[in-house]
Amino acid sequence: MNALKIIMVIHSNIFGGAERHSVLLAKGLKEKGHEVTFVCPKNSWTWKALEGFPIKKVNLPLNGTYDMYSLGRLIVLAKKSKANLLHGHLTRSAFYVNWASRLSGIPAVVSAHATNTHKHFQGARKIIAVSYAVKEHLVSKGYSPQKIEVVYNGVEDLQGLYGKASRQVRRQLGLKDDEVAIVLLGRFIKDKGHDIALETVKGLPDLSFRLFFIGNDNTEWGRYIKNLVRKYGLEKRVVFLGHREDARQLLCAMDLMVQPSRREALGLSVLEAMSAGLPVVASNVGGLPEVIRDGVNGFLFELKDKMALIERLKDLIVNKKLRVQLSTGARKTYLERFTVE
Description:
Elements lengths: L4 E6 L6 H15 L3 E6 L4 H5 L6 E4 L8 H13 L4 E5 H15 L3 E5 L13 E4 L2 H9 L7 E3 L7 H5 L3 H7 L7 E6 L8 H9 L6 E6 L5 H13 L5 E5 L4 H5 L4 E4 L8 H8 L4 E4 L14 E4 L4 H13 L1 H18 L4
Parallel strand pairs: 1-2, 1-4, 2-3, 4-5, 5-6, 6-7, 8-9, 8-11, 9-10, 11-12, 12-13
Helix pairs in contact: 3-4, 8-9, 8-12, 11-13
């Protein structure tokens, strides 16, 4: 394949699945020999994540959907660099990319990462949906199914990268050899279901385990969850690790993941957990059932059935043989479907 000149655009400042995916994709395209220019705000997580990597970065604020300065700069950049393709992630970036495409004549594709947004994708030549759940959502909003391609995200092999250090990390976390480590990795927002996880922990009082929350808990939801932990008397059961740059290494030290999301397009952290060999117990919503096969690489439960979640976690905590079996299934799922290749 001939090398392409690609301008990738993402407006978001935060640390999340779409942001991590865009950085990994940009790095992968660069390593494949393509010329990538990454457009994002300078104060964003993505900008910092690309520091030291040989990818040209362009600082554009992309404020709202009426930032004519950013749009003008993007058009000039596209023309001056003789780009072959514009690629926008999330709805606001799609807005700018599609207008830049219209006014520069350079084709655009956009990536849809959520099941609760649908605006500004119309002008793209193709829409990349991260799951069939996202595609179905967009079709329900009037988009042509022929215009939408489902391309699952890929993630790096965490077990291969960090698996050897897992025992050392467990010691640093103060975990006993027989203590099961359950992890929930994600932004502290209601959609991620931290409160559901806490309700579950209440229902497992006499077992040897701890629940680790990884993510920036300095949010309104994070403060609410900390108050719930105190209210339920779970201070010794639940550990807040905060935002961690070594989150992927931490995953390799865990035994299983719980993902009680109220909404989930696919779940990049779920794919990362599987690459680390973790079984995943997740809600049957969005794109999660496209990843998790019940009894093969984890378990699914219905959000209304909290007892099912309690029973599934109990089974995995007390039955090491089952954990190992599902861990093998998780690794197999990752290697067959969700590598970066």
